[in-house]
Amino acid sequence: MELAVKEKTALIIGRGEQVKIRAKQLVNEQAKVVILSNSPTIGAIRSTGLPRNVSIRPEGLDNWEQVLRDVCPFLVIVSTMSVELDEKIAQAARIVSKLVYVVDRPHLNDLNMTGVARLGDIRVAVSTKGLSPALAGVLRRKIESLIVPEEILQVKLQGEIRSALKKTISDPARRKKAVYKLIRDKRISSLLQSSKYEDAKLRALYLIAKSLG
After folding, report:
1. Where are the alpha helices (DSSP H) in the chain?
2. In the predicted model, what is the mean pLDDT of the chain?
3. What is the pLDDT of residues 106-131, one digit of tens each?
4. 3-class secondary structure, 182
5. 158-208 confidence digits (pLDDT tens)
6. What distance in Å separates the CA atoms of residue 104 and residue 83, rounded to the nearest whole number?
7. β-strand pairing of 99-102 with 122-126
8. Cα distances (angstroms) measured from residue 35 to each of 29, 43, 126, 131, 201
9. Most buried one in 35, 122, 169, 178, CB count within 10 A?
């Protein structure tokens, strides 16, 4: 199940590489990201440039309680590299937020954040139930390598012709057959392989119109 965090506030409290990884993940899902960290981590994040939906609280990790109350986030992500502090923040976070995720401490989590492969409009989630985020990343990259550009364009094509299919074919069973016919059409596949997207789209619309006859 994919967590819907678009336009919702997520607070990341921690230090190190995991802060950057989780911030990037949440930015990709269009969340409003607030980061509370130490100076080295903040410096590294700022050096890469901050998207508009990311803000940094300058108070430092020692002031996590005040920031937690100020932000009142939907989701809190914790990665302080201290077992004791992680547990303390997680316990307090549950009072003011809906969900809590502590990196590498699955027993403290309300959810498991999956590794997500993103290629165009394709999303493939990979989860190890919080037992090995590193392996989830390895598996995600392996899946990414298996998806070819033609398949990414096919997803885009299916999305654009969906309304035309619904208007042309009212019966769901017939419409499903038509979709598979378009996916298996060799001419469309060949055009997408050659990055001739508009020609593939015209071919698809032609086949849809032809189905009326």
Report:
1. 17-28, 39-47, 64-71, 83-96, 133-146, 149-168, 172-184, 186-193, 197-210
2. 87
3. 888 887 666 666 777 787 777 777 67
4. helix
5. 999 988 888 888 888 888 888 999 999 999 999 999 999 999 999 999 988
6. 10
7. unpaired
8. 16, 12, 25, 24, 43
9. 35
**Bridging pattern class, strands 54-57 and 75-79:** unpaired
| C-alpha to C-alpha distance for 164 and 170, rounded to whole angstroms | 11
Domain 9-113 has CATH 3.40.50.300: no
Query: What band does 92 get if pLDDT is binned at 50, 70 and 90?
Result: very high
What does the pLDDT average to over 49-60? 86
Q: What residue ranges do the domains of the chain occupy? A: 9-113, 114-146, 149-210
More confident residue, 119 or 95: 95
Q: What strands, in cross-sheet order, belong to the sheet with 9-14?
A: 54-57, 32-36, 9-14, 75-79, 99-102
Phi, psi of 105 (to 5 degrees): -135, 70
Computed from CA positions of residues 200, 205, 208, 213, in that sequence, does the dihedral angle turn out positive or negative? negative
The correct CATH number of 114-146 out of 1.20.120, 3.30.160, 3.30.70, 2.170.150 is 3.30.160
pLDDT of residue 5: 85
